[in-house]
Design a protein that fits this description.
five-stranded antiparallel sheet; 37% helix; alpha/beta
Length: 266
């Protein structure tokens, strides 16, 4: 296998795996030897205190932040960086492959990340034309379908400054879903919203769970986590402390998990 190449491993059967993933920023180790197997159609919710590495973990899954050590395996294709000094983003072949990876693993961020100079429709169209190579007419039709699905059929030509926080987050969700991803990553998507807007976004995620979308969700909405998750991961200090069903996590005997749940549920 050539350096920083995506390869096929016929022995891998899990839909999405993280193997021995570690990530540091300077001298600060944010992720420390993380291992997770995710099944197709599974909803995996990641919880933990601020600074525990949850958001960085999501970014490592689709190489927005490349792991320093370890690999991500998606549908049998291994992604890893062998040498931290190698600028893999400057490698055009690898960069093209990454665009495809990020099309298949969509991500919605805490702070919307919609382009202020583009309408709702144009925000969704951009990825369709750049990643899926659609022409402008086809991209617009697809964008309008996805915006309608998230309840924005009357906002096609509105700019973000005219949209509420919840509506901007729906644009971001529509933009990711328009690419027909196989996995969706949600990073604290309700934390920047007013309380009355939270339920609408959570209901959209529930809809995706209902149609079998594979999802990895970072959230502090614990009641929602217990309702929607197949499994819950508790992280602290860049490590996975435990993984279990909602019932197992709710009734955990692990002291660090119990302390965290007590602080967030009271």
């Amino acid at each position: 296998m050539s350096e920083n190449d995506a390869t096929t491993n016929d022995e891998v059967h899990a839909f999405l795996q993280l193997k021995n993933v570690s990530k540091s920023f300077g001298s600060h180790k944010v992720l420390d030897d993380v291992n997770i197997d995710i099944a197709e159609g599974e909803v995996l919710v990641i919880i933990g205190p601020s600074g525990s590495g949850k958001s960085t973990l999501l970014r490592c899954i689709n190489f927005i932040a490349a792991p320093d050590i370890g690999m991500v395996i998606f549908q049998g294709h291994s992604w890893k960086v062998f040498h931290s000094k190698f600028n893999f983003l400057a490698n055009q072949r690898y960069q093209k492959a990454l665009i495809g990876l990020r099309g298949d693993i969509g991500m919605v961020f805490q702070n919307f990340n919609v382009f202020p100079h583009m309408t709702a429709t144009q925000n969704v169209m951009l990825g369709l034309m750049k990643v899926r190579n659609m022409n402008k007419s086809e991209a617009r039709k697809t964008a309008e379908v996805e915006l309608s699905r998230v309840g924005l059929s009357d906002k096609f030509d509105q700019y973000p400054e005219k949209l509420s926080g919840g509506q901007k987050q729906r644009v971001a969700i529509a933009r990711a879903l328009a690419l027909k991803p196989k996995v969706m990553l949600f990073d604290e998507v309700t934390s920047s919203l007013d309380p009355e807007l939270v339920s609408g976004i959570l209901e959209e995620i529930r809809r995706l769970a209902g149609i079998g979308m594979t999802m990895v969700i970072v959230t502090h909405e614990m009641n929602f986590a217990f309702q929607v998750a197949n499994r819950i991961v508790f992280m602290d200090g860049g490590k996975i402390i435990e993984i279990g069903s909602p019932e197992e996590i709710r009734n955990t005997v692990e002291p660090r998990t119990r302390t965290f749940l007590a602080s967030i549920l009271n």
